[in-house]
Design brief:
This protein is α/β, with parallel strands linked by helices and about 550 residues long. About 45% of the residues are buried. It has helices at about 15-30, 45-50, 60-65, 70-75, 85-95, 185-195, 225-230, 235-240, 260-270, 280, 290-310, 310-315, 335-340, 385-390, 400-405, 440-460, 470-485, 520-530, 550-555, and strands spanning about 5-15, 35, 105, 110-115, 120-125, 130-140, 160-165, 180-185, 200-205, 215, 330-335, 345-350, 355-360, 360-365, 370, 375, 390-395, 425, 460-465, 535-540. The chain folds into two domains: about 5-145 and about 385-555, 3-Layer(bba) Sandwich (FAD/NAD(P)-binding domain); about 180-375, no CATH class.
Length: about 550
């Protein structure tokens, strides 16, 4: 752990994938920086999410860091879609290889931050009452790191083990012979249910709204395959940079209506049976924007579900009726639909018989009481902005960021907020990170933030604040991108929907994701840099206030 000191040039909040890469870039420049994280160790999402079935939906070899050829050559991904234990080992390996752990402080929950306008300093309060100062804060706090529980009475009344999937216990959970309830059928639940259905005594799934899903089709990676992957890493990352989603899967270049129905079905059959996101991202572009095209694909997927679920009534309950396939981020599954063919698995539709409360012994619906040994809440997250709202962030004039974003975020490029100077968000709201292969988005965001910092240090600037006008233009652009996408009609976290969070219910769209794709986003942010950051207002302070490396650079220039 870093020595107990009170001032840094840069404080990074979060020791997950983004925080690890961010501190690596800072350390390489000799900048006095530290990482703060509330957990006992690094890993971010891969530290917290330990539930059975938790794994990548990105191909493993597209998820890892690309900055070190040596690292790429050393690490052997064992599965096409790696599971949580291996992912956590990978992140620890990276941190240890580059000696990053000494720049990290754990059990340090950031509770509040306030900006000192006179000194261009952030005051950062952490758990235990300790206060730190820094010139720059980088928030690397993740997209899905603020778990939400259902609005149910009696959650504390249940006498058995109960937990949100995000907080799955670190010690093994004995499921054998147990009556287990899973509340939710989102991405996490879909992974969990497929994994535990054959390991529990009785599994009861409480579903409010069904979710589209497609097969993961995972498989091991042999030594020979890994050697081939290593030889093609340049090609692989170039492909990720070229595609809208930052994955290997590229959209079909043909027009939906230019391809006969028979050929469309043949393509879908092929993509459905292949690994990963092909059925979603290697499809026709029209499925994201054209109602009729999306309806045809949705019916195809519905038919595949009907073929996999033996009970026709259950199958229909598992097919979404309120949104089309692929207009939300697609969960990938293994044996999920087959789980409902088991005698020990029951599906409860809470749109028909709503949950009333949690009892001492289980759950009560409007129809009956259920008894359980374990209750698992797979009830999602206050996505993207939720983690920011958990920190009392005060900018110029003491304005609260949570209050500013009460009705939805407004940012510049997803990485700066007007009125909150020197606050950087490499994967913030309205960036392209959430809508892409996350580590690829992370590297793009961190690299841009580092270029901005270097630009400031080279010139002796101590404050950077996006202009109000630039922020308004970007927020309007992000909103406009929603207009052409069918996702605007879906109740999902891409539109800021969460029935468990007050103000995030149906009826209001929160424009929290940039939907223009990776290449367009990268082009835009690079252009901002190339034009000298004209959308950002800078202030120059005393050289004495700069980090040693930056002060030396300024002195040399003078």
């Amino acid at each position: 752990m870093t020595e107990a000191k009170s001032h840094y040039e840069v404080i990074v909040v979060g020791a997950g994938v983004a925080g690890i890469y961010q501190i690596k870039r800072l350390v390489d420049l000799g900048i006095d920086a530290t990482v703060l994280d509330s957990a006992t160790d690094l890993g971010g999402t891969w530290y917290w999410n330990r539930y059975p079935g938790c794994r990548f939906d990105s191909e493993s070899y597209t998820y890892g860091f690309s900055f070190s050829r040596e690292l790429l050559d050393e690490w052997h991904w064992k599965e096409r879609f790696s599971a949580q234990p291996e992912n956590l080992r990978y992140l620890n390996y990276v941190a240890d290889k580059f000696d990053l752990r000494k720049h990290m402080q754990f059990n340090c929950k950031v509770e509040a931050m306030r900006f000192d306008e006179a000194r261009d300093l952030w005051y950062v309060k952490v758990s235990g009452g300790r206060e730190l100062t820094c010139h720059f804060v980088v928030l690397a706090i993740g997209l899905l790191s603020a778990p939400t529980l259902p609005r149910l009475e009696g959650i504390e009344d249940f006498r058995g083990p109960s937990f949100h999937t995000y907080y799955w216990p670190r010690e093994p959970v004995d499921l054998a012979g147990k009556k287990v309830a899973v509340i939710g059928t989102g991405a996490t639940a879909i992974q969990l249910i497929g994994e535990i259905a054959d390991k529990v005594g009785q599994l009861t799934v409480f579903q409010r709204r069904p979710n589209w899903s497609a097969p993961l089709n995972n498989s091991p990676i042999s030594d020979e395959e890994m050697a081939d992957i290593r030889a093609r890493y340049d090609e692989i990352f170039a492909a990720c940079a070229r595609t809208p989603g930052g994955f290997l899967h590229e959209p079909d270049p043909r027009g939906f209506y230019d391809v006969p129905r028979e050929e469309r079905v043949k393509l879908w059959d092929k993509l459905y049976d292949e690994p990963g996101f092909g059925i979603w991202l290697s499809n026709f572009r029209e499925i994201f924007m054209d109602e009729a095209a999306n309806a045809e694909l949705s019916e195809y997927i519905a038919d595949r579900i009907r073929r996999r679920v033996k009970d026709p009534k259950v199958a229909e309950k598992l097919i979404p009726k309120d949104h089309g396939f692929g207009v939300q981020r697609l969960p990938l599954e293994t044996k999920y639909f087959e789980a409902y063919n088991r005698d020990n698995v029951q599906l409860v539709d809470v749109s028909e018989t709503p949950l009333v409360r949690v009892t001492e012994n289980g759950l009560r619906t409007t129809e009956r009481d259920y008894e359980f040994d374990i209750i698992v809440y797979a009830t999602g997250f206050d996505a993207i902005t939720g983690a920011y709202d958990l920190i009392d962030i005060q900018g110029i004039g003491g304005e609260s960021l949570a209050d500013r974003w009460k009705h939805g975020p407004s940012t510049f490029l997803g990485m700066l907020v007007h009125g909150f100077p020197n606050l950087l968000m490499p994967t913030g709201p309205q960036s392209a990170s959430a809508s892409t292969n996350f580590p690829r988005g992370i590297e793009n965001g961190v690299n841009w933030c580092m270029d901005l910092l270097q630009y400031m240090w080279d010139r002796g600037y101590t404050r950077a604040d996006a202009t109000r006008e630039a922020q308004e233009r970007w927020a309007a652009h992000v909103a406009k991108m929603y207009e052409i996408m069918l996702l605007r009609k879906a109740q999902g976290w891409f539109t800021g929907y969460n029935s468990n969070v007050a103000g995030h219910e149906a009826g209001t769209i929160r424009y929290i994701v940039y939907n223009g794709g990776t290449p367009k986003f990268v082009s835009i942010i690079k252009d901002v840099a190339a034009r000298g950051y004209q959308e950002i207002e800078f202030r120059r302070g005393a050289t004495a206030d700069l980090p040693a490396a930056a002060a030396a650079s300024v002195s040399a220039a003078e």
